[in-house]
């Protein structure tokens, strides 16, 4: 498949009546309107955004694990625990080993002072969480729904610990400065809400520093996704507001990886891809079938 | 002279109040330096994930002057608030918090012998290393010692200080940070307020969280006892009398501790009679018949029996019963070692109650320990439940920190209460009522209720409670 074909395969047909488009990464007007209506309840963890707050826990687990996996311990004084070491060592020693190991990783991470760009930040659920991680120096959140940006700004003010760590802007990703300026770029639950996912991908990729990581999550275009996210989520269990999802906008994980293959061959490394599903009234859990339903993806930008 | 001192004092007070105008910011504000509150402070400052959280702990009592010195300088007698520490609690204190209890003052015991004062039924549960008897002061001072060792930054312990006012920093917003005013004039603004302030929790009152429960109309009499000799088998003894259970639990050497649950009226009698008479009654309560006990209570209440008369009568009747045993050596297996003395100043009584808060948390507030639940000492679970709560809260805060949540948000605190509530519910024997509480149709019970011995049945099969609950705090 050549590059053009590949792009086409994940490009969603635009609604013909949206004629005036001024940004290639624009969310459709109806999407902006939908999220504008949701803005006031964005932080209600017991209301209709609860499922998103719960998903955020799984996102953070995925992000933390992948970021930690990139750290190599070079301090020879630190014993790096091998596979199954807990079985062979007494409990107090294995706990101490693990603790020393974790502390060393934390130390290295903190020295990196990571800069994060959250594309499609909504009311700031992910951006705030990232902002609180001790090794994140700053988070820039961008979104095209004005009300969401306002909600995000207002909510961040409630926590003095976030002061100076977050910037929210009403902006399209291509207008974010500078290119190659971010250690982490996140596109969570947003590709399924835009008309041209491929341009979001290419702009997001451009913002990433070499060795940086792009985190993506979205929904495969399949019957299971329709069943879980639209039929069950919106209509039966009513845990997601009706109108949140449109099956024709869903993007398959395989297509995203194909896009990287054809667009930036040899310049990327797929670090991790995991399916994720919601167990009703419990939590989001990861699984290995990344081509059904929702999924998380971590892609590293290899140095030139 | 006195006058000028007064003015100086007023001046200091004045300065203190004006300083209160700008509240100090903190992440966690703990009210209460009991085992639960101190456990949480130690947990936060021990955890590599939480130690960055600024933490303040206040207690009205003299923690630094009276509680902390116990660790290096314990009194030469055993204090009267003794608890049975279960395996999960000890693991939490020693492995997770890294505190070391004073080993010379704890007693491991190998089971409990339960007898029925009416039907002569007997359950002998042998279980080596079932649990440990530990003074509450030992737990508190070990935790304080651990905190001192850690020399934590961002930690402030304010003792002899009381909370005088609590309010939201934005009265319109119940998710805003909370302002806590102290009687020393200081005000703190906190991300998370912890009510570890015992049964009459001020934090709970502020939160508006309701509780279900009742007073039993009964009291527990506690005391430290001396035995005639060190027992060979180290185990606890519990006898169910019609007025409530009496328990005799081992301490190191020739010491033992007593928890005698009885009617308020009898508790008053038991704590007011001369200690020699009390000693005789304790011995009698484990051996004699209910009619005998009733006779003694009556005589003593009306002042119709001298200490010598009581002593002789108990001796006589006890000998009769022992003589009726087929084999006299059996006595050691069914009766606890006789006591020779009770340390008078350790004799105390406290009212029995069963209370359970409907929830343990809301935005910016979490309740821990006795503030969330008060229980009958029969099951010996008060402190264990409190420390297991603390363990769960520490884990919830750690996982919230990993996920970048605001640790004061209800969303971050929820897993703590959803883990502990059902377990505590079971332990509080409210399991049957839980569904009612959940569905919120259960009207708060405000009146007093007397349940008498029936409560014991509600706590579940006695054997289960002894073997599982008592040693594992309902965890397994
Ligand atoms: C007299 C008595 C005897 C007991 N004996 C036994 C026993 O023999 N066996 C057993 O298993 N359990 C016993 N218990 C129960 C056991 O002590 C509790 O279950 C356990 O201590 C609970 O710990 P906690 O940390 O939750 O609360 P507590 O130990 O009650 O600690 C609460 C702390 O909060 C402080 N405080 C309260 N309000 C304020 C305020 N406004 N400002 C500042 N500080 C405040 C108090 O000074 C206190 O130090 C007894 C309880 C009492 C009261």
UniProtKB/TrEMBL annotation, chain A:
Question: What is this entry's stated membrane topology?
Answer: Peripheral membrane protein
The cofactor required is: Mg(2+)
Q: Where does Mg(2+) bind?
A: 189, 192-193
Which amino acids does the record list as binding S-adenosyl-L-methionine?
59, 120, 143, 188
Does Magnesium count among this protein's keywords?
Answer: yes
This enzyme's EC code(s): 2.1.1.-, 2.1.1.114, 2.1.1.64
What top-level branch of life does the organism fall under? Eukaryota
Q: Which UniProt keywords apply?
A: Magnesium, Membrane, Metal-binding, Methyltransferase, Mitochondrion, Mitochondrion inner membrane, S-adenosyl-L-methionine, Transferase, Ubiquinone biosynthesis
Catalyzed reactions? a 3-demethylubiquinone + S-adenosyl-L-methionine = a ubiquinone + S-adenosyl-L-homocysteine; a 3,4-dihydroxy-5-(all-trans-polyprenyl)benzoate + S-adenosyl-L-methionine = a 4-hydroxy-3-methoxy-5-(all-trans-polyprenyl)benzoate + S-adenosyl-L-homocysteine + H(+); a 3-demethylubiquinol + S-adenosyl-L-methionine = a ubiquinol + S-adenosyl-L-homocysteine + H(+)
Subcellular location(s): the record lists: Mitochondrion inner membrane
Task: Give the record's pathway.
Answer: Cofactor biosynthesis; ubiquinone biosynthesis
Give one GO biological process term: methylation
GO CC, sorted alphabetically, is: extrinsic component of mitochondrial inner membrane
Give the quaternary structure.
Component of a multi-subunit COQ enzyme complex, composed of at least COQ3, COQ4, COQ5, COQ6, COQ7 and COQ9.
Instruction: State its role.
Output: O-methyltransferase required for two non-consecutive steps during ubiquinone biosynthesis. Catalyzes the 2 O-methylation of 3,4-dihydroxy-5-(all-trans-polyprenyl)benzoic acid into 4-hydroxy-3-methoxy-5-(all-trans-polyprenyl)benzoic acid. Also catalyzes the last step of ubiquinone biosynthesis by mediating methylation of 3-demethylubiquinone into ubiquinone. Also able to mediate the methylation of 3-demethylubiquinol into ubiquinol.
Family according to the record: Belongs to the class I-like SAM-binding methyltransferase superfamily. UbiG/COQ3 family.
Could you identify this protein by its name? Ubiquinone biosynthesis O-methyltransferase, mitochondrial
Q: Which organism is it from?
A: Henningerozyma blattae (strain ATCC 34711 / CBS 6284 / DSM 70876 / NBRC 10599 / NRRL Y-10934 / UCD 77-7)
Recite the lineage of the species.
Answer: Eukaryota, Fungi, Dikarya, Ascomycota, Saccharomycotina
Q: Which gene encodes it?
A: TBLA0B02330
From TrEMBL, chain B:
Which keywords does this chain's UniProt record carry? FAD, Flavoprotein, Membrane, Mitochondrion, Mitochondrion inner membrane, Monooxygenase, Oxidoreductase, Ubiquinone biosynthesis
Membrane spanning residue stretches: none
Please give, as recorded in its UniProt entry, the membrane topology of this protein.
Answer: Peripheral membrane protein
As one GO molecular function, the record gives: oxidoreductase activity, acting on paired donors, with incorporation or reduction of molecular oxygen, reduced flavin or flavoprotein as one donor, and incorporation of one atom of oxygen
- Cell location: Mitochondrion inner membrane
> Could you name the domain of life of the organism this protein comes from?
Eukaryota
SUPFAM superfamilies the record matches: FAD/NAD(P)-binding domain
Q: What is its main location?
A: mitochondrion
Say which enzyme class the record assigns: oxidoreductase
User: Pfam families annotated for this entry?
Assistant: FAD_binding_3 (PF01494)
Report which residue ranges the record marks as coiled coil.
none
Essential cofactor(s)? FAD
Catalyzed reactions: a 4-hydroxy-3-(all-trans-polyprenyl)benzoate + 2 reduced [2Fe-2S]-[ferredoxin] + O2 + 2 H(+) = a 3,4-dihydroxy-5-(all-trans-polyprenyl)benzoate + 2 oxidized [2Fe-2S]-[ferredoxin] + H2O; a 2-methoxy-6-(all-trans-polyprenyl)phenol + 2 reduced [2Fe-2S]-[ferredoxin] + O2 + 2 H(+) = a 2-methoxy-6-(all-trans-polyprenyl)benzene-1,4-diol + 2 oxidized [2Fe-2S]-[ferredoxin] + H2O
List its EC numbers.
Answer: 1.14.15.45, 1.14.15.46
One Gene Ontology cellular component annotation held by this UniProt entry: extrinsic component of mitochondrial inner membrane
All copies of domain FAD-binding, residue ranges? 178-399
Pathway(s) it belongs to? Cofactor biosynthesis; ubiquinone biosynthesis
Q: Matching Gene3D superfamilies, A to Z? A: FAD/NAD(P)-binding domain
Q: What does this protein do?
A: FAD-dependent monooxygenase required for two non-consecutive steps during ubiquinone biosynthesis. Required for the C5-ring hydroxylation during ubiquinone biosynthesis by catalyzing the hydroxylation of 4-hydroxy-3-(all-trans-polyprenyl)benzoic acid to 3,4-dihydroxy-5-(all-trans-polyprenyl)benzoic acid. Also acts downstream of coq4, for the C1-hydroxylation during ubiquinone biosynthesis by catalyzing the hydroxylation of 2-methoxy-6-(all-trans-polyprenyl)phenol to 2-methoxy-6-(all-trans-polyprenyl)benzene-1,4-diol.
NCBIfam families cross-referenced by the UniProt entry = Ubi-OHases
PANTHER family reported in the protein's UniProt record? UBIQUINONE BIOSYNTHESIS MONOOXYGENASE COQ6, MITOCHONDRIAL (PTHR43876:SF7)
Stated family: Belongs to the UbiH/COQ6 family.
Q: Please name the HAMAP family in this protein's record.
A: COQ6_monooxygenase
This protein's assembly is summarised as:
Component of a multi-subunit COQ enzyme complex, composed of at least COQ3, COQ4, COQ5, COQ6, COQ7 and COQ9.
Name listed for the protein in its UniProt record:
Ubiquinone biosynthesis monooxygenase COQ6, mitochondrial
């Amino acid at each position: 498949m050549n590059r053009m074909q590949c792009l086409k395969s994940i490009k969603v047909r635009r609604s013909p009546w949206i004629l005036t488009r001024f940004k290639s990464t624009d969310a459709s007007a109806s999407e902006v309107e939908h999220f504008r209506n949701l803005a006031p309840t964005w932080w209600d963890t017991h209301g209709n955004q609860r499922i998103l707050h719960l998903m955020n826990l799984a996102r953070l687990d995925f992000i933390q694990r992948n970021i930690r996996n990139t750290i190599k311990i070079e301090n020879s004084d630190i014993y790096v625990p091998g596979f199954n070491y807990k079985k062979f060592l007494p409990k107090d020693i294995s706990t101490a080993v693990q603790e020393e190991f974790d502390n060393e990783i934390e130390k290295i991470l903190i020295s990196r002072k990571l800069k994060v760009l959250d594309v499609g930040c909504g009311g700031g659920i992910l951006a705030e969480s990232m902002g609180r991680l001790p090794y994140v120096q700053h988070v820039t959140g961008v979104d095209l729904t004005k009300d969401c940006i306002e909600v995000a700004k207002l909510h961040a003010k409630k926590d003095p610990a976030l002061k100076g760590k977050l910037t929210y802007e009403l902006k399209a990703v291509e207008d974010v400065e500078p290119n190659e300026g971010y250690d982490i770029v996140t596109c969570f639950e947003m590709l399924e809400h835009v008309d041209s996912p491929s341009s979001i991908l290419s702009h997001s990729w451009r913002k990433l520093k070499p060795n940086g990581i792009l985190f993506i999550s979205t929904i495969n275009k399949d019957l299971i996704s329709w069943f879980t996210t639209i039929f069950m989520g919106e209509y039966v269990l009513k845990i997601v507001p009706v109108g949140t999802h449109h099956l024709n906008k869903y993007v398959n994980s395989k297509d995203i990886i194909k896009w990287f293959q054809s667009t930036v061959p040899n310049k990327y490394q797929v670090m991790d891809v995991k399916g994720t599903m919601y167990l009703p009234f419990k939590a989001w859990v990861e699984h290995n079938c990344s081509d059904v339903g929702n999924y998380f993806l971590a892609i590293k930008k290899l140095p030139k | 002279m006195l006058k000028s001192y007064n003015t100086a004092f007023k001046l200091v007070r004045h300065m203190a109040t004006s300083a209160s105008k700008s509240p100090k910011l903190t992440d966690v504000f703990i009210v209460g330096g009991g085992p639960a509150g101190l456990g949480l402070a130690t947990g936060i400052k021990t955890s590599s994930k939480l130690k960055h959280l600024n933490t303040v702990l206040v207690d009205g009592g003299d923690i630094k002057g009276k509680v902390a010195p116990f660790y290096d300088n314990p009194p030469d007698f055993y204090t009267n608030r003794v608890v049975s520490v279960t395996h999960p609690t000890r693991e939490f204190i020693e492995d997770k918090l890294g505190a070391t209890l004073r080993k010379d003052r704890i007693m491991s015991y190998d089971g409990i012998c339960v007898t029925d004062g009416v039907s002569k039924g007997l359950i002998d549960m042998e279980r080596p290393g079932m649990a440990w008897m530990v003074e509450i002061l030992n737990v508190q001072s070990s935790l304080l010692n651990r905190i001192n060792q850690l020399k934590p930054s961002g930690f402030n312990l304010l003792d002899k200080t009381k909370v005088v006012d609590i309010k939201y920093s934005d009265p319109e917003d119940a998710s805003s940070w909370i302002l806590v005013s102290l009687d020393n004039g200081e005000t703190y603004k906190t991300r998370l307020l912890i009510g570890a302030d015992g049964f009459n929790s001020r934090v709970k009152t502020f939160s508006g969280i309701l509780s279900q429960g009742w007073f039993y109309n009964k009291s527990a009499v506690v005391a430290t006892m001396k035995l005639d000799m060190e027992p060979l088998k180290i185990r606890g003894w519990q006898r169910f009398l019609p007025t409530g259970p009496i328990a005799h639990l081992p301490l190191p050497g020739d010491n033992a501790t007593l928890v005698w649950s009885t009617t308020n009226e009898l508790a008053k009698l038991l704590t007011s009679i001369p200690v020699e008479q009390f000693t005789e009654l304790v011995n009698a309560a484990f051996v004699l018949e209910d009619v005998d006990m009733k006779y003694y209570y009556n005589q003593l209440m009306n002042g119709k029996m001298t200490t010598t008369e009581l002593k002789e009568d108990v001796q006589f009747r006890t000998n009769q019963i022992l003589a009726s045993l087929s084999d006299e050596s059996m006595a050691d297996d069914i009766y606890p070692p006789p006591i020779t003395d009770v340390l008078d100043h350790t004799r105390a009584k406290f009212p029995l109650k069963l209370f359970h808060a409907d929830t343990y948390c809301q935005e910016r507030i979490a309740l821990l320990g006795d503030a969330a639940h008060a229980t009958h000492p029969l099951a010996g679970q008060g402190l264990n439940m409190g420390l297991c709560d603390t363990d769960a809260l520490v884990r919830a805060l750690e996982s919230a920190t990993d996920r970048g949540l605001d640790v004061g948000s209800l969303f971050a605190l929820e897993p703590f209460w959803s883990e502990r509530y059902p377990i505590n519910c079971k332990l509080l024997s409210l399991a049957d009522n839980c569904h009612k509480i959940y569905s919120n149709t259960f009207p708060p019970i405000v009146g007093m209720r007397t349940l008498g011995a029936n409560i014991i049945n509600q706590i579940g099969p006695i054997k289960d409670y002894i073997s599982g609950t008592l040693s594992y705090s309902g965890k397994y």
